[in-house]
Amino acid sequence: MTDRYAVIGNPIEHSKSPLIHGAFARQTGQEIHYAKLLGGLERFEREVRDFLNSGGRGLNVTVPFKEQAWRLADERTPRAETAGAVNTLILLPDGRLLGDNTDGIGLVRDLTENHGVELRGRDLLLLGAGGASRGVLRPLLEQQPARLTIANRTAAKARALAAEVTGMGEVAGCGLDELAGRRFDVVINGTASGLSGEVPAIPEDCLVPGGVTYDMMYASQPTAFVHWGRSHGASQALDGLGMLVEQAAESFLLWRGVRPATAGVIRMLRA
């Protein structure tokens, strides 16, 4: 019987996950069926259980259910524990659910493998202190940057988030208004501001000449933050489409034991 997987979220119609995992399955010769599930806001746990009880082997989880998936998991990986959110559920042989978060490793692999961006020893700025930023903190710090600064409109939120990971590396939180006079090698936007055509209120000169900007969001047209990077001297102004594909590849690896190649899938989605 074909192994069944799905992505659950609300809304879900826009999801590219079935397209991505279908491409991975064809490429690796894995026989799977991957569907979209529109999750009920009050019925998430029941719907996950129903899917698994009817033969499902694993799930991707998207907004607004990542925190609920974290609570539902019987066991969590260290990166999911730090993220406080789960985007991948794996049914273990004993029937328990393992929760993982592949967002951060997806970001890191897109930056380092696909775009050749060195993170070790660099000054990183992460904009935003919400779920998207929390989800990528641990994998970023594992790259051993010289310093990771979390900047947020509300400084207290950034400082609280930094305090949660102080043992993992050189990390600090601050308000956006405290960035004046500082420069960074890589600036990562973990806010959704770009989708509404806005950019966080950061100094015009906070990117070193030839630095890299990365918007964790993506759209059919370049986001506002991609435009900001291009107009402020970035050698690469990247969006989050590669992160989307790389986090999916990590989920596929967890489920199937084989890592698919991603470059062709990213090209297909760009076309």
TrEMBL record:
<feature type="binding site">
    <location>
        <position position="103"/>
    </location>
    <ligand>
        <name>shikimate</name>
    </ligand>
</feature>
<dbReference type="InterPro" id="IPR011342">
    <property type="entry name" value="Shikimate_DH"/>
</dbReference>
<dbReference type="Pfam" id="PF01488">
    <property type="entry name" value="Shikimate_DH"/>
</dbReference>
<feature type="binding site">
    <location>
        <position position="62"/>
    </location>
    <ligand>
        <name>shikimate</name>
    </ligand>
</feature>
<dbReference type="GO" id="GO:0019632">
    <property type="term" value="P:shikimate metabolic process"/>
</dbReference>
<feature type="domain" description="SDH C-terminal">
    <location>
        <begin position="240"/>
        <end position="265"/>
    </location>
</feature>
<dbReference type="GO" id="GO:0009423">
    <property type="term" value="P:chorismate biosynthetic process"/>
</dbReference>
<dbReference type="InterPro" id="IPR046346">
    <property type="entry name" value="Aminoacid_DH-like_N_sf"/>
</dbReference>
<dbReference type="GO" id="GO:0008652">
    <property type="term" value="P:amino acid biosynthetic process"/>
</dbReference>
<feature type="binding site">
    <location>
        <position position="247"/>
    </location>
    <ligand>
        <name>shikimate</name>
    </ligand>
</feature>
<dbReference type="InterPro" id="IPR036291">
    <property type="entry name" value="NAD(P)-bd_dom_sf"/>
</dbReference>
<protein>
    <recommendedName>
        <fullName>Shikimate dehydrogenase (NADP(+))</fullName>
        <ecNumber>1.1.1.25</ecNumber>
    </recommendedName>
</protein>
<keyword id="KW-0521">NADP</keyword>
<feature type="active site" description="Proton acceptor">
    <location>
        <position position="66"/>
    </location>
</feature>
<comment type="subunit">
    <text>Homodimer.</text>
</comment>
<feature type="binding site">
    <location>
        <begin position="15"/>
        <end position="17"/>
    </location>
    <ligand>
        <name>shikimate</name>
    </ligand>
</feature>
<comment type="function">
    <text>Involved in the biosynthesis of the chorismate, which leads to the biosynthesis of aromatic amino acids. Catalyzes the reversible NADPH linked reduction of 3-dehydroshikimate (DHSA) to yield shikimate (SA).</text>
</comment>
<dbReference type="GO" id="GO:0004764">
    <property type="term" value="F:shikimate 3-dehydrogenase (NADP+) activity"/>
</dbReference>
<feature type="domain" description="Shikimate dehydrogenase substrate binding N-terminal">
    <location>
        <begin position="7"/>
        <end position="89"/>
    </location>
</feature>
<feature type="binding site">
    <location>
        <position position="240"/>
    </location>
    <ligand>
        <name>NADP(+)</name>
    </ligand>
</feature>
<keyword id="KW-0560">Oxidoreductase</keyword>
<dbReference type="GO" id="GO:0009073">
    <property type="term" value="P:aromatic amino acid family biosynthetic process"/>
</dbReference>
<feature type="binding site">
    <location>
        <position position="218"/>
    </location>
    <ligand>
        <name>shikimate</name>
    </ligand>
</feature>
<dbReference type="Pfam" id="PF08501">
    <property type="entry name" value="Shikimate_dh_N"/>
</dbReference>
<dbReference type="InterPro" id="IPR041121">
    <property type="entry name" value="SDH_C"/>
</dbReference>
<feature type="binding site">
    <location>
        <begin position="128"/>
        <end position="132"/>
    </location>
    <ligand>
        <name>NADP(+)</name>
    </ligand>
</feature>
<comment type="pathway">
    <text>Metabolic intermediate biosynthesis; chorismate biosynthesis; chorismate from D-erythrose 4-phosphate and phosphoenolpyruvate: step 4/7.</text>
</comment>
<keyword id="KW-0028">Amino-acid biosynthesis</keyword>
<feature type="binding site">
    <location>
        <begin position="152"/>
        <end position="157"/>
    </location>
    <ligand>
        <name>NADP(+)</name>
    </ligand>
</feature>
<feature type="binding site">
    <location>
        <position position="87"/>
    </location>
    <ligand>
        <name>shikimate</name>
    </ligand>
</feature>
<comment type="similarity">
    <text>Belongs to the shikimate dehydrogenase family.</text>
</comment>
<feature type="domain" description="Quinate/shikimate 5-dehydrogenase/glutamyl-tRNA reductase">
    <location>
        <begin position="117"/>
        <end position="193"/>
    </location>
</feature>
<dbReference type="Pfam" id="PF18317">
    <property type="entry name" value="SDH_C"/>
</dbReference>
<dbReference type="InterPro" id="IPR013708">
    <property type="entry name" value="Shikimate_DH-bd_N"/>
</dbReference>
<dbReference type="GO" id="GO:0050661">
    <property type="term" value="F:NADP binding"/>
</dbReference>
<dbReference type="InterPro" id="IPR022893">
    <property type="entry name" value="Shikimate_DH_fam"/>
</dbReference>
<dbReference type="GO" id="GO:0005829">
    <property type="term" value="C:cytosol"/>
</dbReference>
<keyword id="KW-0057">Aromatic amino acid biosynthesis</keyword>
<dbReference type="InterPro" id="IPR006151">
    <property type="entry name" value="Shikm_DH/Glu-tRNA_Rdtase"/>
</dbReference>
<feature type="binding site">
    <location>
        <position position="216"/>
    </location>
    <ligand>
        <name>NADP(+)</name>
    </ligand>
</feature>
